[in-house]
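This entry is set out below.
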Amino acid sequence: MARLIAAGEVVSRPLDVVRELVDNALDAGATRVEVEVDGGGLRLVRVRDNGGGIPAGSVGLAPLRHATSKLSPQARSVEGVTTLGFRGEALWAAAQAGELHVVSRPAAQVGACEVLAQGEDVQVARTSAPAGTTVTVRNLFARLPGRLRTQAPAASEVREVTALLGRYVLHHPGLHWRLSVDGEVRLTHAPSDHRGAVASVYGPLSANRVLAVSGEGVRGVVSRPELTRARRDRMHVSVNGRPVLAPPELERAVIEGFGELLPAGVAPLCVLDVTVAPEDHNPNVHPAKQVVALADLPGVAARVRAAVAAALAAHPLARALPELRPAAEPTPAPGHAAFPALTLLGVYQELYLLAQGEGDLWVVDAHAAHERALFEHLTRALGGAPPAELPEPELLHLTPEQLARLHERGPELQSWGLTLEDFGAGLARLRTLPAALAPLNVPRLHEQIVESALGDGPDPRRDVLARLACAPALKAGMLDLGRGQAVLDALAACEHPWACPHGRPTVLRLSERDLAHAFGRRGARDVPRGRDAAPSAGPGVSGS
C-alpha cells in the first residue's frame, strides 16, 4: 500500500504544510478552518479546525509515515480516492522538517490528546481542548540548513499561502475561513455561495459581474464578458473538491464556451467545481496533488464548455455605457435574457444607432450588429443545400502548417461542403464550396474561406463564417434611418445578439437616471427604471 500511494516528498516549503493540513481539516468534515502563519511559515504554521478529530487510540499513529485512516487496507482503494489527503505522509513529513504539535478531540470523547513529534521521536499526552484538531508546525527546516537557505523570502511565501487559501475559499464557499499572518488577519470568509466567495477573494465589484454555472458535473461561476484579464490566473478549477492546476483542455473549454463573446487574447474569471466518479480520476500523479489525471478529459471538457455556454445564454449581456459620473459604480443589467424591442431615434456619425427600449437609451454599433445578423444567417444556411461544384477546380498555394491542418481537418471541412484536396508540391485543389457561401460578393472569396478554414483557431467553421460576415456588413457612411431600423430588427431576431462574431459588443445602454444625475436633475423622474430597476440579489451583490 505504501508503494502505491507514495508520490515523493510532500513538504519542501511552508506552503506545502498549509496545503496538507487544510486538506486534512476538510477531510475531517470541518465547517471552520483557521490558518496562522508567522515568519513566512518557517517560524510557525498552525491550522485549527472543528472537524471530527482523531480518537485517543489512534492519535499516536498520526505522525507515522503512511499511517492513514483515509484508505481501506485493500490495494484497490487507491483507485477510488474520495478524500483530499490520503497518503499519510503530511504529519510525518512535517515532523521530519520541523517540530510538530497536534491537539485533537472528537466531539464524543472526554478530554483531548496531544502529540509532540520531532524526527522519529513521538510523545503522546492527555490535555483539554475543544472538539476538533489544532496542528502546529514550528521552526521548519531548522535542522536542515541546506533546505533553509533555499527558501523563498517570507513575503513571497505569504503571497503564495494567501493565494492558496483564496482558492480553498473559492471552491469551499460554505465554510468559515480565516487567515492570519504575523498576528494580522489577511483573509476572512463567512459561509455563502460561489459569488460570495468571489467577493471575499477578489472584491464585490468582481462578484457583481459573475454568473452562476450549473451543468452536468459542473458547478460554480463565470464572469460576464466585460470582466476579463490578459492572463489566465483567475481561472480556477477543482476536481472532486480538490483545487488543481486546470488542464489546458479545460481552460480552452471555458474560453470556447464564451464563443464570440470573448475577444481573442483575454481570459475570464471562473470558479468551477468539476465532479467525476472517484474511479475516473487519479490524484496521485503529483507530490503536492496539484495535478490530477482524468479518465475522460474530452468528455469533462465538453461538459464544462456546455455549462459555460448555457450560463451565458441565460443572461442579458449588454454592457453599460461609460459612466458619466467619475465615482459612479456600474449598475447591472436587468435580470432576463430577452433582447428588448428597440425604437430607432437617430443615426450618429453614420455608424451608431441611437435607440430607446425598456426605458433606457441604447447605442448600437451598426457594423457589429449587422455582422452578428449576417453571421447567424450564414450559420443557419450552411449545410442547407448540397455543396456547389466549382466550374473548374482551383489550385491554391498552402503553407506547411496549412497543409498539416488540411490533413487533420479534411473530413470535417467536407462535412459542411468545403472539398479541399492535397495536390502535392505545396498546392491544394479546391473543388466545392458550401452552397450558402458560393454566391457571396466578397473579394478573394475562395482565399478567405481557405485561410480561415486552415487557420489556428479551434473552430474552423465559425472562423470562416465570422470572416465572411464582416466584409459585407454595413460600414460607416452606409447608414440611413431605413437601414438602421432593419439592423435593429435583425439584431433582435438573433440568438446571441450581444456581441459580434469577433467578440466586440453590439450594444451599450444608459439609464435615464444616470442622465438625470449627470445633468444635476432631482425630482419625480429621478427614480429607478430601466437598467437601474434591476432587482438586487443581496447587499453588495447584483442579481444579474
Remarks:
- The first helix runs from residue 2 to 5.
